[in-house]
Amino acid sequence: MLQNQSVLARLGRKPRVHSEHDRLSRRQPWLEACLPAALYRRLFIRRLARQPLAIEGFSFRPVQNLFELEQALRLVNESYARRGIGTVCRAGMRFSPFHLLPGTTTFVALKDGRVVGTVSLIEDSALGLPLEDVHINEAVLQRLGGVRVAEVGTLAVCSRYKGKGVPLMLYNAMFRWAIDHRKVSTLVIAVHPRAASFYRNVLFFSPIGPVQAYTKLNNALSLPLAVNLARARDVFAKAYSAPGLKFTVDQTCTDLFDFFCSRHYPHIQLPAAQARWSADDVLTHMARCGTSPHHLSPRVRRALQLD
Amino acid sequence: MDTGLLRAIYREITLRQPFVRTPEPDLVMVDETCVSAYADSAGQGQALSGTYLYHCAQMCALIKPGDVVLDIGCGPASLLLQLARLNPRAEFIGADLSTSMLEVGRESIRQQGIDNVELREEDMTRLAGIADRSVDVVISSMALHHLADLSQLEATFRNIARVLRNDRAIYLNDFGRLKSVESVDYFVSRASDGADQATLLDYRNSLLAAFSREEFQTLAASYLGPCAKVYSTAVSPLMMVVRTPKRRCVAAMKDEFRRRYRSLPRSRQADVDQLRLFLGMGGMASAF
């Protein structure tokens, strides 16, 4: 890696990973950050209306087997490496105990049997939430509030399908799953400040703590946000009832409240129960990631029921 | 202001030497009534709840996610359990020599369903079960005065230095030795409302068995490195703290600590206020 970096430096290009500072922070979207929330929403929806969601032939659902989960994790690893917040590892995917817990649901966008997008809903468990590595105070305070907390994590979309609304459909599937099946009441997410205006203005997340450097993700800046799902429905209904905020999905006119909360899409398939990973699955997956149970801490082993 | 306090302050300022230390009558707390009285005194609104809240907030600023934290002389693990709930990513080890205390602690761990605390029977002067450089943070609350003499305190400090990793964090708090026994009696009488006889007697014995500030300073300087500073309450060292600089920002937790502070009874709030005021005058800023 060091050698590679020095070669890149000689070529006059800065290395993408292991840089001192977060590369994403260079481009500050100051204009976006200055926009009032209502105007941001209007512009966002105008962009959606101009370029309709291309969801023909896609299906969005929780993973059903280990093969799909591993495809999703490979996509995440690749996408993180491309964004400069991770390195490509030898196995092509990084072992994450959170993705194997019974409370975690990983959603995938499938096109022609291939995983082209993924997002995970990670419920609070004995291992806590992934963002606790950095935003520990915020996570503890949410938990002390006595509500069912879950984190939205590891969003990745295949570069060929960028800008086609895949994340929006994944979020749609995930919100429905979180509210109807898992009875989650608060969603938290750690995002780069550059992406925060979308979550704050369009999805009504609000910041719960200060921006910090995410050590595990190449010191990328990270802002913790949270949304109360019970209240979000009313807020959505109120904000998106205005006549100018319509766009088209699948040849039907809709607004974001209708899109997220009431209309049913055949592309989104939510099963009655999610996939459970047996001890064999876990061990197989660990072997493919190039790790083994004795590399894990006793607590992680207990949570994965490997002892 | 009552005249007792003025007299105590006068004595503490004018007397030259502290009184001679009397070790605790039972160096290991195994007596049933003693254990249950001590375990009860940490409960919600009980004698030690204010003090624990203050130190708990201070300790949180030292603990990062993923750390291994060792509590020396954890007793019934009341403080440890509070800390464990506020720092779910850290692993906690509680070490104590009293099996009956540990039993009380294990019972409350089971009741509260906490999975990141492990209690072990350890002699704090040896810490035989803890490997060298295996711990990130060492904490201790009101335990060191149980040691028999200065050589044992020295052995404890030496072992703390042994088990800590390079990026060391320490928070040890204990009573300090006052200059006259009358002052001890005065401070015990101040704590008398709401506390039972066993707790008061234990408090008095603790104050008589406390080490002096100079002893702490000498040992901390020789074993714990230049980062560990000794703070004590202003005027007289009723409470002493050995602490390294903060490792984490706990500004976001302030509201939670303040909420807990407001839920304490008035007399326990006064404990926190006094610690804040007198340790603040001694140079240590409050965490909330």
UniProtKB/TrEMBL annotation, chain A:
Transmembrane segments: none annotated. Gene3D superfamilies: 3.40.630.30. The lineage of its organism: Bacteria, Pseudomonadati, Pseudomonadota, Gammaproteobacteria, Pseudomonadales. The keyword Electron transport does not apply. One of its GO terms (molecular function) is acyltransferase activity, transferring groups other than amino-acyl groups. It holds the Pfam family FeeM. Keywords: Transferase. It comes from Pseudomonas monteilii. InterPro entries: Acyl_CoA_acyltransferase (IPR016181), FeeM_cat (IPR054597), GNAT_dom (IPR000182). This is GNAT family N-acetyltransferase.
From TrEMBL, chain B:
Gene3D superfamilies: Vaccinia Virus protein VP39 (3.40.50.150). The keyword Ribosomal protein does not apply. Residues 64-176 form the Methyltransferase domain. GO terms for molecular function: methyltransferase activity. InterPro entries: Methyltranfer_dom (IPR025714), SAM-dependent_MTases_sf (IPR029063). Signal peptide: none annotated. The keyword Cell membrane does not apply. It comes from the Bacteria. CDD domains: AdoMet_MTases (cd02440). GO terms for biological process: methylation. Keywords: Methyltransferase, Transferase. This is Class I SAM-dependent methyltransferase.
